[in-house]
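Render Capsular biosynthesis protein in 3D.
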Amino acid sequence: MEETISLQDLFKTLKKNLGIIALTTILAITIAGAVSFLFLTPIYENSTQILVNQEQTEASQLTNQNIQTDLQLINTYSVIIKSPAILDPVIEQMNLDMSAEELTQKITVNTAENSQVVNVVVRDEDPAQAVEIANTTAEVFENDVRELMNVDNVSILSPAILKENPSPVEPNPILNMAIAAVVGLMLGVGIAFLREYLDTSMKTEQDIEDILGVPLLGVISPIKEKAELETTTSNRRKAAELNG
């Protein structure tokens, strides 16, 4: 016999296990909040902008080939910025206790589409150090790229600045708690349906018919408690005495 579950049964299951669902959701939010505020290290972000000025002659025209050449040059600069040729001098100037590979993990270089501006983004546990790394990297690149590529078309457009009250970009407690709430809710619903699936006891007349597959012939009335029986018997005796 194929077992089917109605929408009403689903709502009954959720209602019956509402406490478990609420408990798992609150517990997940609490754990996520505690981890975000107490255990995860705040990460701060700052950036500097580098402008790549292409020299244009009077006879030059803006063609697709020129645009492609500009983009390739900027992509090359993006690679050079994160190379040991730039990062090793940065480490030496700042006396950083890390390798060029470790410093690379803190730096992200990106450019806007069809833009001559290169953004050097630095993430670090210390906001002041993030600013210093970004500015030092830009300065070293501006000076050393002249010898590396024999060009003089790079300048710092906007240096990184330390804000008075910097806010960390990681972790995001609100986002973490929101995700935890969804996960806790899903977990609670899963537990609710798992309990219902594992519960094979028969509680109603319909359960008997569904599980055994036979029609119900009769129902035994609930047995009254001893006190109720004594009260009923006493009332019957009084009624008989009055009638007699």
